[in-house]
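Lay summary. Proteins are chains of building blocks that fold into shapes, and those shapes determine what they do. In this project we predict the shape from the chain. Here is one chain we studied, written as its sequence of building blocks.
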Amino acid sequence: MAVLLLADTLEPLNVISDRRLVLLLSKDKVAFLSSADEEEGRLAVAQRRLPDQVLIVRLLRHVRPIRRSLHPNRRNLLLRDQHTCQYCGCTALPRELTIDHVVPLSAGGSSTWENLVVACKRCNGKKANQLVEQAGMKLLRKPREPRTDQGSILFLRYPELRVAFDAFCRVA
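And here is the predicted shape, written in a compact code that computers can read:
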């Protein structure tokens, strides 16, 4: 079960555990967004089981959201590029993918969002220590830094929450 915590303004804040949900409910700090979710959540808590669907709760008091920044590490790059080689378009398991510098470090490149892409081992070997054009290759998408608002970060890491949140937004 995933519990999406929204601010009082309905902006995504965090994903919390079922244990944290019980604590916040007992202190009357959060509320469910719908009566159906409330019934399912309270029943699950009473029976000490986890609900099957994603639960969305909102804080009853205003808190200022923390602005976080994402670092271009392997995990975040795989999430941004959706486990897809940015040269040939093949999708693979993380262990079969590498991180490639579009402009190699030896040619003055850096380790930034705009210079790092996910590549399969074959494409990374083909490109080697060259510029993309020199290797006769082409990028499928220009690499860029992902949006850093809290909702975007959460939805990047938990795609199932985006589906539930989008469904909530359509109803609301």
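What the prediction tells us: The CA atoms of residues 56 and 168 lie 9 Å apart.
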